[in-house]
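Schema walk-through. Below, the input block comes first and the output block second. Nothing else is stored per chain. Lengths vary across the set, and this one has 440 residues.
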Amino acid sequence: MWFEIARDLDLDELSAELYEWSREIYPWGRSITGKETVRTLKWIQEKTGIEIKSVPSGTKVLDWEVPLEWNVEEAWVKDEQGNVLVDYRDHKLHLLNYSISVDKIVSREELLQHLFYLKERPDLIPYRTSYYNRDWGFCIPYSWLSRFKGKKYRVKIASTLSKGYLHYGELLVKGKSKKEVVLTTHICHPQMANDNVSGIVVLSKVASIIKDIIPELSFRFLFIPGTIGSITWLALNKDNLSNIKAGLVISAVGDRSGFNYKRSRKGDSFFDKFLPSLARDLGDIVRIHDFHPYGYDERQFCSPGFNLPFGLLSRAQWGTYKEYHTSGDNLSFIEKRQLSKSVRFILYLLGSLDANKFYLNLYPYGEPQLGKRGLYERIGGESKKKELQLAFLWVLNYSDGTNSLTEISLKSGMPFYTIAKAATILEEAQLIKQIDALEC
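--- output ---
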């Protein structure tokens, strides 16, 4: 069972690797389009083998349109003495995302209309965007306002908004079935570690592991710009969604919090039903939340016309921590161990789904004799033997064609991997047979 890979991960080694990945891509100036987003996708491609896809500006996608491509060479504000007061090179959040090109002298009054800050968090740079409104601006800590005492300032933003492409990454790991599990994370946020460098590196690692396995189900990985990326993908694949049986949006999985899970709009997907019990197997606690139509890309996949079984997995929920969408979301805000534990948790969830088979007891009248089949021989220690023997009984009793292994795990209170191991042994002993290994 490939989900056992999750249990055997060297978390120390993985933690160091993922944190180094995060350090590498953290400073890049990503947006919903542009060279830095392509740079990020090429980095993901090296780790996973994704295909990078390009959709031209102006393409009609559902009720939206693929925007112009945005790129930045430099952006700064200088005072009358030539002192640099704000510089995009120092931090990518300093520039209002999608700012138009500007090169002029402005008054203090005009400049202040284009400065964004947070009074309640005076030392943090806020993250602000203007994707669909032509505007320009700079984001600064509120404590910097005292720097702007002069009457005139030189503002330069060397940016371009031109016909180009929206890029995203896609990887399909084909399984024995065409039924799909889709995992997605957004790639559009500049220089913020938790939201969403953590999602990028964690999902990249998961994809790099799964692509070397031949699973039962097929697994599709999407690395997309937020909102417009998922809308674009859905528009391009609108007639090919019937095979999707489960989906997870992955975001902000590197902070110190425990996991939070938002259910799909349907509320009855595999993850909706079983994620808490699977978390219990690993000693994790997950707070469960009902679906609501705000958040990340799950709201696009779960929109009523598609109504796909997508949930959102994160650690801290969006908007609930003071570092959210600010320069406080830096490399010191995430923890190495949280990144590796997120990889382990997601792998275990996916492995459990992939191994979630249905069986039929071939000896349903009374309890079959396990001893003569060698199933009571010592396995590991005495406690392991008793645990597995009990799992045999649970699997035999509930293998009536209506209970999946995950449902048996939930009913019994036993770890899924123990129930799955018992089922494998019982199937080899020809006491049960699989009747629909791919039912979710």
